[in-house]
Design goal:
Layout: H1 2-6, H2 12-31, H3 34-39, H4 42-58, E1 59-62, E2 64-68, H5 75-82, E3 90-93, H6 96-105, E4 111-120, E5 123-130, E6 135-138, E7 144-147, E8 153-156, E9 169-172, H7 180-193, E10 199-205, E11 209-214, E12 219-221, H8 226-237, H9 240-247, E13 251-253, E14 261-263
Parallel strand pairs: 2-5, 6-9, 9-10, 12-13
Antiparallel strand pairs: 1-3, 4-5, 6-7, 7-8, 10-11, 11-12, 13-14
Length: 268
């Protein structure tokens, strides 16, 4: 049985490739060319020649794909980057093919990491760890995005995402996503200060500073030097009279931290 398999027509090309490898390895060892081989392009050239032939021998048919951890990543995205859904069953080269699929999946903006493996002879398992959304970025009326902690776009925002990410905040304005780290610090600080009030949005103004919109209708105009003034702003906003202004929906202008301007709301 073993003899029949070894000398079968299907296994002969494998024996030829292995024989070439042993012969080449013996020659290299005899000539002392280890370092030169590693530093040359010979290995890459051999790989590019051999792999296209051997990949078909070791390819297997996949008839089912199981995907876990997917919410933002669409099935169309997975199929397009992995190039595995064009037929009812598709071929995948063990090792090399799955490594390529994993690399392509991790290039998707919604995917942080991926595991690709075979669970049975014909079942491909894809396990995704998606990027964690931290904010919704209203770039303009036509473009609203779910973004990660680096300010990178994960997916366009849709009404279906509202329940899934109801606990994250909204930033508004061109290039506001580039300042997401500052926005997160500011949001956490104000969330602690605004007793019983909710932040509607952090609005980036002229890519220089932030305005804060609150559910009471109030608006806080913050200075450009935000990081240096953070503690001072916190102490100011916790003052009982300022809290009253905020609840009344008044506009508080502290762009100049040495002077404060209050514009009362119409119903004040």
């Amino acid at each position: 049985m073993l003899r029949h398999y070894i000398f079968s027509r299907k296994f002969v090309p494998v024996l030829l490739v292995l024989g070439c490898c042993f012969f080449l390895g013996g020659y290299i060892r005899h000539q002392g060319l280890y370092i030169n081989l590693v530093n040359s392009n010979l290995v890459n050239n051999l790989r590019s020649i051999i792999l296209p032939f051997t990949s078909n021998w070791f390819a297997i048919k996949v008839k089912e794909m199981q995907i876990t951890g997917r919410y933002y990543t669409t099935l169309e995205d997975i199929c397009s980057v992995a190039d595995i859904c064009s037929n009812d069953d598709f071929g995948i080269t063990l090792g090399m093919g799955m490594h390529k699929i994993r690399s392509n999946l991790e290039m998707l903006p919604s995917v942080q990491s991926a595991i690709v493996k075979m669970d049975s002879p014909h079942t491909l398992v894809v396990q995704l760890v998606e990027e964690t959304p931290v904010a919704i970025w209203w770039e303009n009326k036509q473009h609203v995005w779910v973004i990660n902690s680096k300010g990178e776009k994960i997916v366009p925002f849709s009404n279906e995402d509202e329940k899934q990410i109801s606990d994250i905040f909204l930033i508004v304005g061109p290039y506001a996503n580039e300042h997401i780290a500052e926005a997160r610090v500011l949001h956490d600080l104000l969330d602690d200060v605004l007793r019983g009030m909710q932040i509607i949005a952090l609005v980036r103004v002229n890519d220089r500073r932030w305005d804060i919109e609150i559910d009471s209708g109030a608006r806080i105009l913050l200075p450009e030097s935000l990081i240096e003034s953070m503690q001072e702003i916190k102490e100011f906003l916790t003052h009982s009279q300022i809290q009253k202004y905020l609840r009344n929906g008044d506009r508080i202008d502290i762009r100049d931290t040495k002077r404060v301007f209050i514009r009362y709301s119409e119903g004040h």
